[in-house]
Specification:
The chain has four helices and two strands, in the order ααααββ. By secondary structure, it is mainly alpha-helical.
Length: about 160
């Protein structure tokens, strides 16, 4: 018979061996010094204080002040929003050439041309396409663009080639 479960196969009455890397108490639990606690608290404080500034930057990634402050197409759909995010990139191409890539956005379609591996860690099932697919070019008001297999956003406005 093979011993199973916690403590199986250990000598009764013996303490576990301390793990490598630092001081441990008689139960093998690492001993944390006051200097280590201060360092951990300082890192936590820095992370806590930096979070609001990082969040603001992420909500407006790549956008100019005029784009952030201005009125953009679609703003009228939800005028009293709890969260507003304006992100932008510059693409050296004609709008009608870019539209084919925008039209196929979504989970189960062309993906989001982003960090698929991170999105898939939470079960999104994203696979960004590296080609324009004719089957994904149709997008119309009322369609749903899925962010996740169970989460989607309704299309409320479409301006192809713009």
């Amino acid at each position: 018979m093979v011993p199973r479960g916690p403590g199986a196969g250990e000598d009764v009455g013996r303490f576990p061996r301390p793990r490598a890397g630092g001081e441990h108490d008689t139960h093998g639990v690492p001993i944390v010094t006051s200097q280590q606690w201060r360092r951990r608290l300082a890192l936590a404080a820095v992370a806590l204080l930096a979070t609001p500034a990082a969040r603001v930057r992420m909500l407006h990634w790549g956008a100019t002040r005029a784009e952030v402050d201005g009125v953009l197409p679609g703003d009228e759909v939800l005028p009293a929003s709890d969260l507003v995010s304006t992100r932008a990139i510059t693409i050296d191409a004609r709008p009608e050439d870019v539209w084919a890539w925008v039209a196929q956005l979504g989970q189960g379609r062309g993906g989001f041309y982003s960090y698929d591996c991170l999105e898939n860690l939470i079960g999104c099932g994203i696979h960004s396409s590296d080609t324009v697919r004719p089957a994904w070019q149709g997008v119309a008001v009322g369609d749903v663009v899925h962010l996740h297999p169970e989460v989607g956003l309704a299309v409320v406005q479409v301006e192809p080639g713009r």
